[in-house]
From TrEMBL, chain A:
Domain annotation ABC transmembrane type-1: ranges: 119-310
Compartments where found: Cell membrane
Protein name according to UniProt: ABC transporter permease
Family: Belongs to the binding-protein-dependent transport system permease family.
Natural source organism: Glycomyces terrestris
UniProt GO cellular component terms: plasma membrane
Swiss-Prot/TrEMBL keywords: Cell membrane, Membrane, Transmembrane, Transmembrane helix, Transport
GO BP: transmembrane transport
Membrane topology reported for the UniProt record: Multi-pass membrane protein
Pfam families: BPD_transp_1, OppC_N
Ranges of Low complexity composition bias in the record: 19-28
Amino acid sequence: MTFTPTELEAEGAAGGEPTGDPASARPPRSGRRLARAFLRDRAAVACSAYILVVVLMALAAPLLVELSGHGPLEFDQAAVDSDLGGLPIGWGGGIGADHWFGVEPGNGRDIFARIVYGARVSMTIALLATALTSVLGVVFGLVAGYFGGRVDMVISRVMEFLMAFPALIFMIAVLSALPAENRQALLVVVISFFGWPYLARIVRGQTMTLKQREFVESAKASGASSAQIIFKEILPNLSSTIIVMTTLAVPGYVGTEAGLSFLGVGVVPPTPSWGQMIASSVPWYAVDPAYFLFPGAFLFLLVLSFTVLGDRIKKIAESGEARS
Amino acid sequence: MIRFLVNRLLGMAVVLLLVCLFTYVIFFVLSPDPAVQICGKNCTPEAIDRIRANLGLDEPFRTQFWTFLTGLFAGRAYGTGANAIECAAPCLGYSFQTSQPVTDMILQRLPVSATVAVGAAVLWLLAGVAAGLLSAVKEGRFADRFIAGLTLTGMSVPNYVLALSLQFLLVVTLGWLPFPQAVPFAEDPGQWFLNFLMPWTVLSIGAAAVYTRLTRANVIETLQENYVRTARAKGLSPGLVWRRHALRPALTPIVTIFGMDFAGLLGGALITETVFGLNGVGKLAADSITKNDQPVIMGVTLLAAFLVVVGNMVVDLLYTAIDPRVRVGSAT
C-alpha cells in the first residue's frame, strides 16, 4: 500500500487510457471544460463525494456525537457482556439504535464517535503533511533546478540520501525515540521530512527544462530578477504537476499516519485514530469482526478515493497538456 | 567501469556512515536518557552514573560515536576491568529488556523474515508482471479494466486491514487455511506453503499492484516505438517481436525498482509479521517499540538502512549490465 517510493515513479510512467466517448477524447481546453470532463467521470465524482463526507464528518464531529449521544471517550459498561470477557452485547458488535456502529469490546466505547473523531486526526495529519511536503518540495525543487551548480548538487545529494533511507523504519525510530508533547505535530514534521524529495525531484527536473524556454529568456533579457522569474514565469507552469503530485501523495500520508498509529508510535491514546483502532481490534478480530471492519472500511475507502481521484486528475491534466 | 565501481562504493560508504550517525544521534542524543530507563523505578543518581559509565555515555559525543562505529566492525567492551562484557562484531549493544546481544536477537529471527520477504517478492514479481502483460495485450478491453480496478484496490488497501480480513474470512469463517505459524520447510513443505501463503499475499499486494501498472505502461509505450514497428515491418513473427524487441526494454525498469523494493521490505514486514504473529525481525522491532527497547529498534533500523543502501548499489550494478546506455552516461 503506502510509502513505497516506487509508487510515485510508476505514476510518472503510466500510459493514458483511451475513452470510447468521442467528446471526451477531445482534450479539454478551459477550466470549465476540465470541470465538465471531471463531472462526467463517475468514479471521480463518487470519490470526491466520499472525501467530502469524511471532511464534513471531521468538521462536524462534536455535533454528530451530540446526535448519537455518546462521546468518543465515554465508557458504556451496559453495552458489553462482562461474563463473556467484555464482548459487545447484540449483533455485529453491538450495532443498534443506541450505538450506530456498535461498541468496543472491553470498555464499551462508541465506535461511531471514535470513527468520527478519528477522521479529524486522519484528515488533519494527512492534509498538513501534504501542505508542508508541497512547500518544501516546491521550494527546494525550484531552487535546485533554477540555480543549478553547487546549490543543486547539495540539494540533490540530500534528496538522494533521504530517498535511500528506509523511510518507514526511520519514522518509527524517530517517533519512538523522541519524547513529544504534541504527537500530531511531530507526525506531520516526520512524514514531510521524508516525503518532500519525491516532489522536489520532479519539480527540479521540470524547472531545468522550463529555464531553457524562450519566455524565461525574454523575461531575463527584460531585466526581471530571479525571484520574479521563479514566481511569475516558472511556478505557474508547474501548477498542474504540483496539483497532480500532491493529490497522489495524500493517500500515502493517510496510510502512513494510520500505519504508524497502528504500530503504536503515532497518535497517542485516548485520542482516537483509525489505525490505532484497528491495532486494538487485532486480539478481537475472530469474535468481533465489526470492531476492525468499521475503521478498516473507512480507512480503505479514504485511501482508495484519494488514489482514484489523483489518478483521474493526472489523466485530465495530461490530456490538457497534450494540446499545448 | 572500475572508476564507476569505486565511486559507487565510496558513495555507499558515505551514506552508511551518515545513516549510522543519524541513528546514533536519534537514539543516544535526542531521546530521553537511556540510563534512566535501564535503571528503573528505584533509582539513585549513583546507579545512573554507573550505568552511564558502563554504556560509555559519560564520554564526549565524538568518542561515543567512534566506539559505536568500531564496535560495528571490530566489537567493543562495555564497562571496565573485571566487569567488562565483551561484545563481538558487529556489536549493536545489548537489549534493555532481555540483556541479550541485539545481533543475536536479530540473527535468530532473520530466517523467518527472509522466508516471508523472498516469498512475497517472488509472488509480486510474477503476479505483477503477468497481470501487467495481460493488461497491455488486452489494452482497453474488459480484462484490462478489471485488472486496473484490482490494482487500485491493491494499492489502497492497508496491509493490516487486508491481513485481518483474510484471516477472518479464510481462517475463522471458512477454515481453509491454518493460522500462520513459522513451520520450517524441511518439516512439512505443504504446511510450510499453506502457513506462509497469507503473509506472502499481504506483504506483496501493494507492490504487485504497482508492478502491474508499471509493466503495463512500459509495454504499451515500447510497442509504439519505431524499432518495434520496423521489426514488425520486416516480417518478424509477433512472438519474436515481443521477446526480442518489446519485453527487454519494457522490463528493465522493473529490475531497478525491484531491488529497491526488496531491500525496503523490512518496513512492510514490520506490520505483516506483527499482525500474523510471525516471530521475525519485523515483529522484534514492533515489540521493542512497545517495550521502548531502544538498542533493538536501533539495530533493526541500521539493518534496514544497510539493506536498502546495498540493494540500491546492487541494482545500479545490475542496471549497467542490462542497459549499456547507462555505462556511457555514468561518466559524470
